[in-house]
Amino acid sequence: MMNFGTNTHCSSYTSKENIPASGKVDAPHAQRPKQRRVLGVLSENEQRGRSLSQGSHFSKHSSISDSSQLVSLGSPPTSNFDVYVEEACEVVLAASGQEVVSDSFYLDSKSAGLQHEHSRLLLELSSSSCQDASMQSEPNKSLMSEEVFCVSEYAEDIHLHLRESEMRTRPWAGYLLKHPEITNGMRAVLVDWLVEVVQEYRLRSETLHLAVNYLDRFLSSTAYVKRSKLQLIGIAALLIAAKYEEISPPELNEFVYTTDNTYTKNQLVQMEHVFLNVLAFKMTAATTNQFLRLFMSIRSVCANTENLALYLAELSLLEINPFIQYTPSLVAAAAYYLATYTLNKSLWPDSLIAFTGYTTTEIVPCMTDLHKLYISAASRPQQAIREKYKSSKYCCVSLITAPAVLDLL
């Protein structure tokens, strides 16, 4: 029987979650695994002379076992237009890899000039063969660090700000209806792969949550994205999230490497440019991870409970349905509640009812959906999150058996 008390070998999360003691991520090519997971291949890359038999390695778990998913993620585009952006904004990625922006992209000449200048600077930074300026800047402490959360006089203001922010940065629940070539299963495979990349480069959990938020918002604001572009969109989301959140984000070459060079540096820079314009450079977003940290600063828990709540919160990233219909704060409340209930049979505490305004009745529907996902986690084809939380660093919480039933009311 596993001891569910605080494990002396399991330290709680800090603001430098996955950064080594030196403060610099070290991912030399010499230490890279020989085999690399690849989600899809672009036909235009093949036209450039790239052969899958040269320099590409697939692990036995890397290729997508479901043949329908393999066809969906790897098949070539069926038209010359890959991305159509709504709301008076059309962005076209041609098969040649060149970006074409329609005249309707900018609302007026003044905004066009500003956008052009932003885009020019972005491209100058991102296309450099050296580490870009954002990576060379002085380390900045995250505004959402535990030290900030623990200042009780600011906790209510922080919570109010996050609750307002989560409404401004919510993706549209039905966005997949606008993307006939992309399915919920493909998105789950992509998120599972992003978890592996985050682990390999020892990035923070907040970076993962931000990347998924960017991914969903991008797809909410676009239509008819080709399946062959899905991995490129995913790695661009992670690139931007790492620049936003990490003290020392990986270099551009590293992100290209994660795709086994399926995409070029130029393609990734172009997609980053498109991404930032589609999201209007609004990269600050409230995530489930932020709310969960805040809740645990208000009502502290043991290391096992903390890590189990974090595990459940990450599991929710895998599924659009039903979790996209819930706000991040509600998912965080459900993860907290389910973790404390699983380990201690505890109920939603009065202190968090007063702080969040969420009652048990409001949390139960989301918690029930999260419980179903928790029970099915071991049998899912996507296992990256579960493998991550099998580590002693996270107190092996993914090995904890989910309660068979929830007796909450």
UniProtKB/TrEMBL annotation:
CDD domains in the record: CYCLIN_CCNA_rpt1
UniProt cross-references to Pfam families, sorted A to Z: Cyclin_C, Cyclin_N
KW Cell division (keyword) present: yes
UniProt cross-references to SUPFAM superfamilies, sorted A to Z: Cyclin-like (SSF47954)
InterPro entries on file: Cyclin (IPR039361), Cyclin-like_dom (IPR013763), Cyclin-like_sf (IPR036915), Cyclin_A/B-like (IPR046965), Cyclin_C-dom (IPR004367), Cyclin_N (IPR006671), Cyclins_cyclin-box (IPR048258)
Domain Cyclin C-terminal: from-to ranges: 286-403
A single GO BP: cell division
Biased composition (Polar residues): 1-17
Keyword Manganese appears in the UniProt entry: no
Gene Ontology molecular function: cyclin-dependent protein serine/threonine kinase regulator activity
Keywords, sorted A to Z: Cell cycle, Cell division, Cyclin
Region ranges (Disordered): 1-71
Domain Cyclin-like: 192-277, 290-372
Record field: compositional bias (Low complexity): 51-71
Its biological purpose: Essential for the control of the cell cycle at the G2/M (mitosis) transition.
Protein family (similarity comment): Belongs to the cyclin family. Cyclin AB subfamily.
Subunit structure: Interacts with the CDK1 protein kinase to form a serine/threonine kinase holoenzyme complex also known as maturation promoting factor (MPF). The cyclin subunit imparts substrate specificity to the complex.
Protein name, as recorded: G2/mitotic-specific cyclin-B2
Source species of the chain: Gasterosteus aculeatus aculeatus
